[in-house]
Design goal:
By secondary structure, the protein is of the alpha/beta class. It has one domain: Rossmann fold (3-Layer(aba) Sandwich), CATH 3.40.50. The chain is built from 8 helices and 10 strands. Strands 6-7-8-3-9-10 form a 6-stranded mixed sheet, sandwiched between helices. The chain has a 4-stranded antiparallel sheet with strand order 2-1-4-5. The chain is globular, with a radius of gyration of 18 Å. The two termini are 33 Å apart. Bound molecules: adenosine-5'-triphosphate (ATP) and magnesium ion (MG). The site of magnesium ion has 2 residues, from α1.
Length: 253
């Protein structure tokens, strides 16, 4: 039995533009299940990032309901939303937003200290473990400006995981990386998913999309179609890729 983790019902988001309404999300109905690796694709401007921000409560929807593990997010107060995001969601974006005057290690631990679920010593131990998992423990004491883009992205993932989130949101996490670094980041996300972590990722990159168990295609703020794939493994990638490419081309991608 798959449990619904995040649910959107009739989700709409509009922006007022010179007196006219720009309808960016139009009546999105979506259920994300525990343990899924879901990828959202669609052309630029189709509303992918807006959907991610609205689902996580980082941005308020104009109308509709969002339910996260049984809790309505759309009418939750800002401070409770922030607390919930901190304690049970992780965020990895193309621009990593590491704090520039904190070291890699401090960027990760601060997120744990603020959450207050673990004692500082435990946060530090966990941060070390995550740095090892990401293969960047030797960079712990460097500033973000002293490590590469791929290493910064790993640090950002470590930070996203410090509070053991149930769901990781990723918006083009490989967009700013070369293909080797991008591949490594995708391997990390796949491994996390294999261990039961839920992932919701937006990407333009077919290689990244292949990691999904479920692909969703947005056109003009609406879900145009979706596709299920078997759990990702490194075998049979050619066939998986041609299946995804033919679906994408049927979507006008
Ligand atoms: N704060 C805002 N105010 C007004 N319009 C906005 C705002 N944020 C986004 N939009 C508009 O909403 C639409 C969807 O934007 P969004 O960033 O969700 O697209 P996207 O699918 O993520 O595109 P990309 O692939 O280029 O990242 C765009 O037309 C954009 O201009
Ligand atoms: Mg975007």
């Amino acid at each position: 039995m798959k449990n619904v983790m995040l649910q959107a019902a009739n989700l709409c988001k509009s922006y007022a533009n010179n007196g006219t309404q720009n309808h960016v999300l139009r009546n999105i109905n979506l259920e994300l299940y525990e343990g899924e690796f879901t990828v959202i694709m669609g052309s630029s401007g189709s509303g992918k990032s807006t959907l991610l921000y609205s689902l996580s409560g980082m941005d308020r929807a104009t109308s509709g309901e969002i339910t996260y593990n049984g809790l309505r997010l759309d009418n939750l107060k800002e401070d409770r939303l922030a607390m919930l995001r901190r304690s049970s969601m992780g965020f990895v974006f193309q621009q990593m937003h590491l704090v520039q005057n904190l070291t890699v290690f401090e960027n990760i631990t601060v997120a744990g200290y603020i959450n207050k679920k673990l004692k500082p010593k435990e946060v530090e131990k966990k941060a070390l473990g995550l740095l090892q998992m990401m293969g960047i423990e030797r960079l712990a004491d460097r500033l973000p400006s002293q490590v590469s883009g791929g290493e910064q992205q790993r640090a950002a993932i470590a930070r996203a995981l410090i509070n053991s989130p149930s769901l990781v949101f990723a918006d083009e996490p490989t967009g700013a990386l070369n293909s080797k670094s991008g591949h490594d980041i995708l391997d990390i996300l796949s491994e996390l998913n294999a261990e039961g972590q839920s992932v919701l990722m937006v990407t333009h990159d077919v290689k990244a999309a292949l990691r999904a168990g479920r692909l969703i295609y947005l056109i003009d703020g609406k879900i145009a179609d979706e596709m299920q794939l078997p759990k990702y493994t490194a075998e049979g990638l050619k066939a998986r890729e041609s299946q995804v490419l033919s679906w994408l081309s049927s979507m006008g991608w």
